[in-house]
Design a protein that fits this description.
The chain is mostly helical and 154 residues long. 56% of the residues lie in helices and 8% in strands. Helix 4 packs across helix 5 and helix 4 crosses helix 6.
Amino acid sequence: MEQLVKSIHKLRIRTHSFFIVGFPGETKKQIRRTFSFARRINLTSTWFFIANPLPGTKLYDICKKNNYMKTNFDFETIHYGKSNYETPEFTSSELEDLVERETFMFNLSVLFLHPIFFIHRYLFFLITKPQITLKILINGAIAVSRILFRKRKT
């Protein structure tokens, strides 16, 4: 994968990726390795999502069988940045914190690794969709403040 991304970048093609983490049985260490892998292969952009159990899927069956589902689980309101179950490996808030922090840090690193792409992408978005951009900026500022001012567990 690493060599493929390098070859693609030599052709001046941007690389975008999506990762899903937080499957039952997956440890925090394995999740962190996924984050490290995404950084190591130098992708242009990436998004990290949390696995969510949809009815009719094997993941749903596993979560139901092991009583991992949250009591207020509603598949019609799933948000892939939120966890709808907890496992012995992690709580939903621990997983959400990991994903939120890493998504922010990864996308911030794009500013330094690919500054022209970063500026171009956000200027284009600002010009073509100013209302959505404002909403994203406000939500981003709130997320950043939560990350920076979150009480650390000792």
